[in-house]
Amino acid sequence: MNRTEILVSGFGGQGVVLLGQILSTAAVYEELFTTMLISHGTETRGGYVRSQIVLSGSPIDSPVVETPDYFCAMSKSAYTKFGSLVQHGTIIFDPGYIEPIQGAGVQHSPLPARDIAVKELGREIFANIIFLGRLGQQLQGAISKESFLKALAARIPKLIEQNSRAFELGYTFEI
Question: Which of 74, 100, 105, 170 has its CA 20 to 30 A from that of 84?
Answer without folding.
Answer: 170
